[in-house]
Amino acid sequence: RQRGEDKQDTQNRRWRTGNNHTLSAFSFHRFIVANTMISSMQSVRLVSRPFRMSCQRDFASSSKTALPPTLNCAKALIKQNEGDSFNSILKMDVTTLQGIGPKHQEQLYELRIQTVADLANFKYFHLAKAITVLAEQEEDDGRHSDAQMNIDKGVDKAYENKSFRDIAKAPVSALQGLTDEAGETFKQLGVKTVEDLGRFKFCSWAEAMQTAAKFEN
Q: Can you tell which superkingdom this protein's organism belongs to (predicted)?
């Protein structure tokens, strides 16, 4: 009988020990899972805060880029056309440019210049501008003995052997194709010399607008 009780006692101890091991393993597993979840939550908190800050910065940046455009050329246009596109302005009458009234309009019409695009493409303006720019790069006695450069097709015979600086100071009628009558018309516009024509502000404005129009969306 005593042996039977001892045997039963031994089995009970084994059962308790086995259960304790099982419980210990289960508790350890729960501990690992709980710690993993806590670590994950902490990681999310650590990551989410910079992410929110990043989103806020991105939103602020996009808000800044959403500002309306400010470019304009209000000083060159009459009030009612300040909001028009460059492409539209080029097709408009020369009086769209600020400073060209009925009198100047008539004078420009005599030169067959009616629109802003006509001013931009006026060939004598481009020739005069080239002469004016190159005159600033000219040196006394700087022509090479074998030089071939000339602008004979752009100036009257009397100016073919002249320097750029001499031509720039000459009256606009020195340009081949412009008559003395045209020269008088230019005088009324404040343009007396080839250099004056090369710097003629209305042509310069129109040319700049035409260039800008090529990049207009």
A: Eukaryota
Q: Does residue 92 form part of some domain?
A: yes
Which pLDDT tens digit goes with each residue over 123-134? 999 999 999 999
**Residue 207 domain-assigned?**
yes
Count how many domains the chain has: 1
Q: Return the half-sphere exposure (C-beta side, CA atoms, 13 A cut-off) of residue 97.
A: 27
216: which residues sit within 8 A by CB, 6+ positions away?
Answer: 85, 86, 87
* Site of tokens 């006692």: 9
Cα–Cα distances in angstroms (integers) from residue 105 to residues 111, 177, 202, in the given order: 10, 21, 12
Q: What is the pTM of this model?
A: 0.70
- Both tokens of residue 187? 């005088």
| 33 part of a folded domain | no
Q: Which residue has the tokens 């001013």?
A: 119
196-214: average pLDDT: 98
